[in-house]
């Protein structure tokens, strides 16, 4: 890891999980249940929750009867996921740019804008290449990303979010390639500053990445209710691709 990879430190802090605590299991369960029903994924399928965090989507996938592996770069998140259970979910600390040795899957999920964190476009290609390698023939990839066009057009430049005992001062900016979120706060008389940086990737960017690795987009949705994607108005860009 080089020092510019911001996500390794930030995602491993208690503050990251405090700020995003509103991402709850109930929301995840409704979305994943509807999606798996729509895609008619067979019970017992081997699935990978790639960049699983503390496992909220993995737990839903397990309840739906799938054989679940959850993978995330944050060791602390994986520890929390294991503690939460259930024990039949297999969790691993893993860099999404690499193949999980001797592992193949029927479906791979990459959810809640867990893509585009890296410095270079070549790393995006490495992620898709690894995913393609791990997917079985006719396997499915689900990518749930922000709708970058709407985010840029309606960028909230400044806001304060209170979570627990902390006021998080958040500012956002767009430099033509990345969307930045600067997060500043004080805790126990110590000042903290973290910066999230995500590439502004659009549908055509994903089409090119996926096509290069033999993956074809078969569906796109614009929100967790699985309504059609519209670049101007949709909240999300949810891509379903097939190998």
Quick take:
The chain is built from 8 helices and 11 strands.
Description of the structure:
This protein is of the alpha/beta class and 243 residues long. It folds into two domains: 7-146 and 202-242, Vaccinia Virus protein VP39 (Rossmann fold, 3-Layer(aba) Sandwich); 151-196, no CATH class. It is built from eight helices and eleven strands. Strands 3-2-1-4-5-11-10 form a seven-stranded mixed sheet, with helices on both faces. It has a four-stranded antiparallel sheet with strand order 6-7-8-9, with no helix packed on it. Helix 3 (25-39) packs across helix 4 (56-63). It is globular, with a radius of gyration of 18 Å. The mean pLDDT is 92.
**What level of helicity do the residues show?**
25-40%
**Count the helices. How many?**
8
Looking at the structure, the CATH topology of the largest domain is Rossmann fold
What structural class do the secondary elements suggest? alpha/beta
Order the strands across the largest sheet as they lie in space.
3-2-1-4-5-11-10
**Beta-strand share of residues:** 25-35%
């Amino acid at each position: 890891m080089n020092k510019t990879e911001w996500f390794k430190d930030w995602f491993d802090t208690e503050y990251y999980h405090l700020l995003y605590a509103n991402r709850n299991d109930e929301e995840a369960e409704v979305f994943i249940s509807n999606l798996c029903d729509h895609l008619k994924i067979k019970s017992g399928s081997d699935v990978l929750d790639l960049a699983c965090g503390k496992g909220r989507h993995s737990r839903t996938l397990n309840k739906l009867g799938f054989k679940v592996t959850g993978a995330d770069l944050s060791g602390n998140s994986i520890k929390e996921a294991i503690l939460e259970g259930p024990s039949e979910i297999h969790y691993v600390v893993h860099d999404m740019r690499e193949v999980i040795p001797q592992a193949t899957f029927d479906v791979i999920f990459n959810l809640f804008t867990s893509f585009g964190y890296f410095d270079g476009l070549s790393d995006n290609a490495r992620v898709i290449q690894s995913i393609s390698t791990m997917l079985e023939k006719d396997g499915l990839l689900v990518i749930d990303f922000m709708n970058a066009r709407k985010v840029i057009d309606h960028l909230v430049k400044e806001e304060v979010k209170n979570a627990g005992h902390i006021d998080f001062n958040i500012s956002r900016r767009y430099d033509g390639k990345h969307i930045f979120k600067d997060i500043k706060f004080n805790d126990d008389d110590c000042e903290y500053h973290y910066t999230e940086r995500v590439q502004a990737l659009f549908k055509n960017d994903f089409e090119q990445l996926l096509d290069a690795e033999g993956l074809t987009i078969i569906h796109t949705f614009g929100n967790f209710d699985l309504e059609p994607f519209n670049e101007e108005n949709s909240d999300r860009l949810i891509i379903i691709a097939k190998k």
